[in-house]
Design a protein that fits this description.
The complex is a heterotrimer of chains A (about 290), B (about 270) and C (about 375). Chain A is about 80% helix and about 0% strand. By secondary structure, chain A is mostly helical. Chain A has a single domain, classed as MetI-like fold. Classes of the chains: A mainly alpha (about 290), B mainly alpha (about 270), C alpha+beta (about 375). Chains A and B meet through helix 1, helix 3, helix 4, helix 5 and helix 6 of A and helix 1, helix 3, helix 4, helix 5 and helix 6 of B.
Chain lengths: ~290, ~270, ~375
């Protein structure tokens, strides 16, 4: 007993500095936001009256609904695109690339992720813009007469930009799941008379599912809260939820309403994450 | 064999995918050395003017100094805190470990706008002057999960009996940590410092809202994106930043792998 | 080898992990200069007991004395013990010499003296001249030797070895067993070995404590342990033992007469009577495969008793052959005939018998153990 207490004490005293740091810099601000979301906005200060009014406003305002739906749709589209495009690459690196070259591939895949996000986003605007790389090249080559418009400063270009930004986030978890698959299982599948395609469908894919779900979560959560891309690509004209929060908080100085928006966004993200974690657990149970 | 034909198709796809990943980065130097002021094809001619202009820009130099200060402080702070958390979670069992670790790792998945906004609201409420320090606090928070992810790998691949052996051979607990554990996780620590540095250097949202009037490189870039005349200089700056990031990451990766090789771990497997 | 002076004494040692009772009243005396083994299946508490002696685990109650000094509040780094870890725990960032010299950091001796001591310790384990090598380039056997040298250079009163041979292949293991015995005789200090391998314990130890579920089931020398297991469980764990159902006919002044299936009536003195386990299926007698002899029908033998049998299965091992026999008068168990296993050395001129052959089993009551 004594030993266990000593170990717990050592562990707790070690974890204390980072935990207290996260408590001070993250938990207290989040709780403040939560508290603000139930207060009333006065002209210059915040009135300390408990109210549901902010939530009522957030839930009934059609603009909030539009922005929230846009965020969800963009995040869902980005997630589907990213994970769908990433799976074959993860499969390639895990199953085809020679073991000693896997690390190099992973390194190559992750590098773009760490390089100036803002500039990358801006470059997509340059690439996709009216006089951008794609359009100026295509018109210059005489392939098209008029610049393509479906990729211009709209939701499509936001989706492409975000899908590019979060690509490594999708590849890595899928790769890890694929790496864990015992290769003899696949041989067993083939040995038991399944075709290659059916072995993939009945053995590989189910075993890779936890990685796919992790990838879905890890892409979906940050994209739904992305601020930079709508700001740079859409020039502020097609805001997502993050931009709306910022506008309420700072430009309009309505912190209670902004807080309510932030809390609602977190709740939506949490609910969706919970659903996926639940699905993941189901898959894990099947694996055992 | 059919494996090869299957592999060939996948390989072509994967290379195209890499090209997609690198497309914007590859365009950077092209426009940075292009003498035309408009970012479009066809190219005009070769010039290094934009780099010269970049170097002559006082605001940019100030932004650079600020960014380096922030990145250095935030990466040291995040890595120190990360060492505590990684050691606690890999070495000790204690009540609430899972919950506390999950909370510390939360910024990894929390939209940064929420971190930035909530911290800003509290700081303004407390009457704290926004400065580089407030950015450092925010950056250390978001770098910490990455630092912990790297350091946990380093700590957990360490044979626990190594430290016990040092203790058994007469060293104090601190001596065992200093003489055995620390040298063995040092590659992880360096790797964590470099990754945190890179994240902080590149971070925009927290810097944008918490720096007050002080520019950092990303906020400076953001402010210039509106002015078409400034774009070529930004391309030059971007080229330099990308090169810097790649160098830092390559060094980080080198240390991470060397650390793994030294304690007999696998060469693959990275941050996640 | 051993002197009578007690080196390690455990008095009613208990250890709890939360609700789990890992050590349940260990009483144990290990003598100075003894090669002592803690033997048992995984989870029996043998490693916990070793780590308790080393000071890595606190005890919940009881006393541990080393060289007659209480070890209460003496941390592992201050105890006169050193340990060879299961993984060897060779510091991968140091050279062989730096590993061996690790414990000498606070030693006041000069650098040259320390280097000489390192070289001597390396010589003792057969690694002379390996000092400058990098530790992570060593083979398993070499790591083990470095671990030994690193511990022995500090001249501990007790050397603790936690499953030191389990990571080695069979040949290397057998070689290291002999080397460890020699090394222990040479340095003359107490060795305490933890192992789950009964053969290893029998080969190496002066005395063995067999542990099950946090308790010592038997503490004896290898021969006594093998020939007279104190409980049926010990008998099962060490080597192969045959069991036959038996009934007690009379029990007078220490001598028990039993009627054994297939063997008939036997008188057994108290020295041949051991405990059954609580959950065993009645009274049995046990005997080792090599204590009985297979003799061809009509051939002469020196054993006092014999029993007729049929060969049910033959397993040929090169130097040995195992015969599974159906003894006349022995019934079935679980719907199959109950067989006993006899081992015969394949000496020159002795033919391997065939399945189905009628044969005789020659034996002596002295080789039987009664579990009641």
């Amino acid at each position: 007993m004594a030993k266990f207490d000593a170990e717990a004490k050592a562990g707790l005293s070690l974890i204390a500095p980072p935990f207290l740091y996260a408590l001070g810099i993250l938990a207290i601000p989040l709780l403040t936001i939560l508290a603000y979301s139930f207060l009333t906005d006065g002209y210059l200060e915040i009135i300390r009256d408990f109210t549901w009014a902010n939530y009522a406003e957030v839930l009934t305002d059609p603009i909030v609904l539009v922005v929230m739906m846009r965020s969800l749709i963009v995040a869902a589209a980005v997630t589907a695109l990213t994970v769908g495009l990433a799976f074959p690459v993860a499969y390639y690196v895990s199953f085809v690339v020679r073991p000693e070259r896997k690390a190099m591939w992973l390194f190559l895949i992750t590098i773009p992720f760490w390089t100036s996000y803002l500039i990358r986003v801006f470059l997509w605007k340059v690439i996709l813009g009216y006089n951008g790389v794609v359009n100026s090249s295509l018109t210059g080559l005489g392939i098209i007469d008029e610049p393509l418009t479906f990729i211009l400063y709209n939701v499509n270009s936001i989706v492409i930009t975000l899908a590019h930004a979060y690509a490594p986030f999708a590849i890595l978890p899928i790769f890890v799941a694929l790496e864990k698959i015992d290769r003899s299982l696949l041989e067993a599948g083939r040995d038991l008379g399944e075709s290659r395609a059916m072995t993939f469908w009945r053995v590989t894919l189910p075993l890779a599912m936890p990685g796919v779900l992790a990838a879905v979560l890890i892409v979906f959560i940050p994209t739904i809260g992305d601020y930079v891309t709508p700001e740079v690509i859409g020039g502020g004209k097609i805001p997502m939820i993050a931009n709306m929060i910022q506008v309420q908080m700072l430009a309009l100085d309505n912190r209670p309403l902004g807080s309510a928006l932030a809390v609602m966004a977190m709740v939506v993200v949490a609910v969706i994450s919970a659903v996926f974690l639940f699905l993941n657990r189901r898959f894990l149970k099947v694996r055992q | 064999m059919s494996i090869h034909s299957k592999g060939r198709g996948l390989q072509v796809y994967s290379v195209l995918y890499l090209l997609f990943l690198y497309a914007p980065i590859l365009l950077l130097p092209i426009f940075a050395f292009n003498s035309g002021t408009i970012i479009a094809f066809p190219l005009q001619g070769f010039t290094t003017d934009w780099f010269v202009q970049m170097w002559g820009n006082a605001t940019l130099r100030r932004a650079l100094t600020n960014s380096l200060t922030i990145a250095f402080s935030a990466s040291v702070l995040a890595t120190c805190l990360g060492v505590f958390a990684a050691r606690a979670s890999t070495r000790f069992k204690f009540p609430g470990r899972g919950g506390m670790m999950a909370f510390i790792m939360l910024p990894m998945v929390l939209p940064e706008i929420i971190v930035a906004m909530s911290l800003l609201v509290v700081l303004l409420g407390m009457g704290v002057q926004l400065s580089l320090l407030t950015v450092i606090l925010g950056h250390a928070l978001i770098c910490m999960p990455y630092a912990i992810a790297i350091l946990s790998t380093a700590f957990s691949s360490l044979d626990r009996s190594l430290e016990e052996a040092a203790y058994d051979l007469g060293e104090s607990k601190w001596g065992a940590f200093r003489l055995v554990t620390l040298p063995l996780v040092m590659p992880g620590i360096i790797s964590s410092l470099l990754i945190s540095f890179t994240i902080s250097l590149d971070e925009f949202i927290i810097a944008f809202f918490l720096a007050g009037n002080e520019p950092t490189l990303p906020t400076y870039i953001f402010s210039q994106l509106r002015f078409p005349r400034s774009i070529p200089v930004i391309m030059a700056l971007g080229t330099v930043l990308v090169l810097l990031s790649i160098v830092l990451l390559a060094i980080g990766e080198y240390f991470r792998r060397r650390g793994n090789a030294r304690i007999g771990g696998s060469p693959t497997g990275g941050l996640l | 080898m051993t002197d009578a002076k007690p080196m390690i004494e455990c008095r009613d040692v208990h250890k709890y992990y939360g609700d789990y009772h890992a050590l349940r009243g260990i009483d144990l005396t290990i003598n100075g200069g003894e090669f002592f083994s803690l033997l048992g299946p995984s989870g029996c508490g043998k490693t916990t007991l070793l780590r308790t002696i080393a000071g890595f685990e606190d005890i919940s109650s009881g006393v541990v004395l080393i060289d007659r000094r209480s070890m209460e509040d003496v941390p592992a780094n201050k105890r006169p013990t050193n340990m060879v870890f299961q993984s060897y725990a060779i510091f991968p960032h140091l050279t062989v010499a730096e590993n061996v010299a690790f414990g000498l950091r606070r030693d006041p001796r000069s650098k040259a003296d320390k280097a000489a001591a390192v070289e001597e310790a390396l010589g003792m384990v057969g690694l002379k001249g390996y000092g400058a090598r990098s530790a992570h380039a060593l083979s398993g056997g070499q790591r083990q030797r470095v671990a030994l040298a690193r511990a022995l250079i500090l001249k501990p009163k007790v050397l603790l070895l936690d499953e030191p041979l389990s990571a080695l292949d069979r040949k290397m293991r057998e070689q290291m067993q002999v080397e460890l015995i020699k090394l222990q005789r040479q340095v003359g200090i107490t060795f305490v070995l933890v192992t789950h391998d009964q053969e290893e314990a029998l080969v190496m130890s002066d005395r063995i404590a067999v542990m099950f579920e946090g308790e010592i089931a038997q503490l004896d020398g290898p021969e006594a342990l093998y020939a007279r297991p104190a409980t049926r469980r010990v008998a099962d764990f060490i080597g192969v033992m045959n069991f036959l159902p038996a009934r007690i006919v009379s029990d007078m002044s220490g001598v028990v007469t039993v009627d054994v299936d297939g063997l008939g009536q036997v008188e057994l003195p108290a020295s041949q009577i051991s405990r059954a386990n609580p959950d065993d299926d009645g009274i049995v007698i046990g005997f080792r495969p090599e204590t009985m002899t297979l003799v061809a029908v009509g051939a002469a033998h020196t054993q006092p008793r014999e029993t007729n049998a049929t060969i049910d299965e033959v397993v040929y091992y090169g130097d040995m052959t195992y015969y599974d026999l159906r003894l006349d008068g022995v019934g079935q168990v679980n719907g199959k005939p109950r067989t006993v296993r006899i081992s015969m050395r394949n000496v020159f001129g002795r033919d391997v018998q065939e399945v189905g052959t009628r044969t005789r089993l020659a034996w002596s009551p002295g080789s039987l153990v009664l579990f009641r």
